[in-house]
């Protein structure tokens, strides 16, 4: 793993050592994750990139404490994760916003649970509704929203209590290109402001490179870490211009090389009888 | 019964046009079309009954819509039906209230205790499948011919319908919602209040909606079997004198009451689950 420990005074928020995950499917044991070694440093933005269904979400579920690794050690700030991890904000791949609560009630929920005073709650909710572009939909129930809008409610819900670590599972998958670019920019400026560490799952290579400090390329199932690519692009980044720079193209070539190999491996796997 | 169903269903499917789907106007509003069709059914049905009565069949056996209407008018003009109607409604109300509160409580409790629920499951299924109306004579034996036996019958019927639905609802909660709240730092009580209860409320309301007409039937059948008051008693009394008109007028009255109560509960249900409409 290149230059994992180059930062001298950096602390690992999440630390995984030889983490494997096997679960029992209908046709016997399924190897979802195989010996993953990985650190997420304070304030770092890491993109997990890999083919669909390769176990990236499994890794997030383990960091959130919802499932336990079958073997290996997984710690959060040095403490083994053995229950729901309340230091994180987690936006799952599937909608987890409550259908019987309006947009603002949903965003308010984590603040209510954390007993934030009502006035502060209202201010925060208003700020984040503005941020995800849902002004005018405060009192709409999720059933009245499009898929992309529900995703943005989920994002606001994960951000609103400003956790020190964010787990985002393909948060912008359902958005159109323009909105996506805007939300990416908002996310970057916010995480930079908060100093939050981000673990960002995506299967979009360009999204991974434009946002992340490091891109972790994962293989087809059982997921292994194939390569870790440092993205040495300066911050703050101009997301619109970034893709046209030579440095960007160079990083992209390297990621593509690795990912392409994995896609072929995945196809061979599928072609097996 | 089937009338209630049609009414509720057409009412539920009607507001399907979303806020942003402006459709070009059609020749005939489907709602009006449906209403016209329903009026036509009533006219043909009652008209042919009225015409055949006295011409094809002896009104002693079938009575006629006009005679039944007159009987109903008579009851309400003299006010003689009110005490009976009130008694039936009281039996219905008390039985439904006790039965459904107990059903909700037991349903939620067993929903939280999966092992206990698994132990009790076959027995619950047996009792649920039992025709509880058939127990009415026993209830008269145990609780007398007055109020008590009817409340027990109505309560038992409502209990099982509400309990079964609440229980299913308490276990049907999407685990993703629960996980999501655990990460937000919610304790079990908060998860129960914010996720399990609102999620199961849909089922509770369904249970109530099914229970209402059944509870009306329970109250009336209880009275039919043995009593000295209530609409069921009126029906039984008329039957004893071969008064077809009286029997059918009583039945029509019960059906009307049931439809009105069902509409009330449907309105309540729609209010409680208004989030489904977005």
UniProtKB/TrEMBL annotation, chain A:
<dbReference type="GO" id="GO:0016887">
    <property type="term" value="F:ATP hydrolysis activity"/>
</dbReference>
<keyword id="KW-0547">Nucleotide-binding</keyword>
<dbReference type="Pfam" id="PF00005">
    <property type="entry name" value="ABC_tran"/>
</dbReference>
<dbReference type="InterPro" id="IPR017871">
    <property type="entry name" value="ABC_transporter-like_CS"/>
</dbReference>
<protein>
    <submittedName>
        <fullName>NitT/TauT family transport system ATP-binding protein</fullName>
    </submittedName>
</protein>
<dbReference type="InterPro" id="IPR050166">
    <property type="entry name" value="ABC_transporter_ATP-bind"/>
</dbReference>
<dbReference type="InterPro" id="IPR003593">
    <property type="entry name" value="AAA+_ATPase"/>
</dbReference>
<dbReference type="InterPro" id="IPR003439">
    <property type="entry name" value="ABC_transporter-like_ATP-bd"/>
</dbReference>
<keyword id="KW-0813">Transport</keyword>
<dbReference type="InterPro" id="IPR027417">
    <property type="entry name" value="P-loop_NTPase"/>
</dbReference>
<keyword id="KW-0067">ATP-binding</keyword>
<feature type="domain" description="ABC transporter">
    <location>
        <begin position="14"/>
        <end position="245"/>
    </location>
</feature>
<dbReference type="GO" id="GO:0005524">
    <property type="term" value="F:ATP binding"/>
</dbReference>
Automatic annotation (TrEMBL), chain B:
<dbReference type="GO" id="GO:0005886">
    <property type="term" value="C:plasma membrane"/>
</dbReference>
<dbReference type="InterPro" id="IPR000515">
    <property type="entry name" value="MetI-like"/>
</dbReference>
<keyword id="KW-0813">Transport</keyword>
<feature type="region of interest" description="Disordered">
    <location>
        <begin position="1"/>
        <end position="26"/>
    </location>
</feature>
<comment type="similarity">
    <text>Belongs to the binding-protein-dependent transport system permease family.</text>
</comment>
<keyword id="KW-0812">Transmembrane</keyword>
<keyword id="KW-1133">Transmembrane helix</keyword>
<feature type="compositionally biased region" description="Polar residues">
    <location>
        <begin position="1"/>
        <end position="11"/>
    </location>
</feature>
<feature type="transmembrane region" description="Helical">
    <location>
        <begin position="191"/>
        <end position="212"/>
    </location>
</feature>
<protein>
    <submittedName>
        <fullName>NitT/TauT family transport system permease protein</fullName>
    </submittedName>
</protein>
<feature type="transmembrane region" description="Helical">
    <location>
        <begin position="247"/>
        <end position="268"/>
    </location>
</feature>
<feature type="transmembrane region" description="Helical">
    <location>
        <begin position="92"/>
        <end position="111"/>
    </location>
</feature>
<feature type="transmembrane region" description="Helical">
    <location>
        <begin position="34"/>
        <end position="52"/>
    </location>
</feature>
<dbReference type="InterPro" id="IPR035906">
    <property type="entry name" value="MetI-like_sf"/>
</dbReference>
<feature type="transmembrane region" description="Helical">
    <location>
        <begin position="151"/>
        <end position="170"/>
    </location>
</feature>
<dbReference type="GO" id="GO:0055085">
    <property type="term" value="P:transmembrane transport"/>
</dbReference>
<feature type="transmembrane region" description="Helical">
    <location>
        <begin position="123"/>
        <end position="145"/>
    </location>
</feature>
<keyword id="KW-1003">Cell membrane</keyword>
<keyword id="KW-0472">Membrane</keyword>
<feature type="domain" description="ABC transmembrane type-1">
    <location>
        <begin position="85"/>
        <end position="266"/>
    </location>
</feature>
<dbReference type="Pfam" id="PF00528">
    <property type="entry name" value="BPD_transp_1"/>
</dbReference>
């Amino acid at each position: 793993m290149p230059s994992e420990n180059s930062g001298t005074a950096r602390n690992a928020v999440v630390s995984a050592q030889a983490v494997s995950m096997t679960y029992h499917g209908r046709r016997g044991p399924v190897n979802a994750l195989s010996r993953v070694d990985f650190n997420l440093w304070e304030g770092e933005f890491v993109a997990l990139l890999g083919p669909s269904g390769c176990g990236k979400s499994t890794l997030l579920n383990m960091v959130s404490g919802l499932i336990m690794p079958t073997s290996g050690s997984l710690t959060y700030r040095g403490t083994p994760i053995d229950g729901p991890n309340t230091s994180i904000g987690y936006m799952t791949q599937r909608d987890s916003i409550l259908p019987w609560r309006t947009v603002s009630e949903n965003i308010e929920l984590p603040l209510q649970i954390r007993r934030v005073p009502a006035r502060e709650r209202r201010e925060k909710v208003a700020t984040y509704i503005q941020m995800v572009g849902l002004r005018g939909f405060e009192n709409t129930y999720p059933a009245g929203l499009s898929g992309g809008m529900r995703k943005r409610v989920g994002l606001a819900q994960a951000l609103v209590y400003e956790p020190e670590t964010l787990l985002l599972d393909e948060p912008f998958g359902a958005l159109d290109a323009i909105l996506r670019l805007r939300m990416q920019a908002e996310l970057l400026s916010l995480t930079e402001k908060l100093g939050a560490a981000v673990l960002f799952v995506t299967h979009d290579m360009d999204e991974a490179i434009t946002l992340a400090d490091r891109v972790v390329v994962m293989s087809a199932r059982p997921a292994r870490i194939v390569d870790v690519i440092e993205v040495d692009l300066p911050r703050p980044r101009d997301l619109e211009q970034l893709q046209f720079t030579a440095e960007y193209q160079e990083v992209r070539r390297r990621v593509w090389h690795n990912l392409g190999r994995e896609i072929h491996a995945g196809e061979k796997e599928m072609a097996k009888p | 019964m089937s009338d209630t169903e049609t009414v509720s269903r057409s009412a539920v499917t009607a507001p399907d046009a979303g806020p942003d789907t402006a459709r070009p106007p059609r020749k005939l509003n489907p709602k009006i079309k449906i209403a016209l069709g329903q009026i036509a059914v009533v006219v043909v049905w009652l008209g042919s009954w009225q015409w055949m009565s006295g011409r094809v069949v002896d009104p002693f056996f079938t009575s006629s819509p006009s005679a039944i209407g007159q009987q109903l008018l008579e009851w309400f003009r003299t006010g003689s039906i009110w005490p009976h109607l009130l008694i039936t409604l009281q039996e219905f109300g008390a039985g439904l209230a006790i039965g459904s509160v107990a059903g909700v409580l037991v349903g939620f409790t067993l929903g939280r205790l999966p092992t206990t629920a698994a132990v009790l499951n076959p027995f619950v299924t047996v009792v649920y499948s039992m025709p509880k109306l058939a127990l009415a004579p026993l209830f008269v034996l145990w609780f007398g011919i007055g109020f008590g036996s009817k409340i027990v019958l109505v309560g038992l019927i409502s209990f099982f319908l509400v309990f079964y639905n609440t229980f299913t609802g308490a276990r049907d909660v999407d685990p993703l919602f629960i996980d999501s709240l655990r990460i937000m730092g919610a304790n079990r009580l908060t998860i129960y209040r914010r996720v399990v209860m609102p999620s199961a409320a849909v089922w509770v309301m369904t249970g109530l909606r099914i229970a209402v007409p059944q509870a009306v039937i329970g109250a009336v059948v209880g009275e039919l079997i043995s009593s000295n008051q209530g609409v069921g008693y009126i029906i039984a009394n008329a039957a004893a004198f071969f008064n077809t008109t009286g029997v059918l007028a009583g039945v029509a009255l019960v059906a009307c009451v049931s439809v009105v109560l069902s509409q009330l509960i449907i309105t309540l249900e729609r209010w409680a689950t208004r989030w489904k409409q977005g």
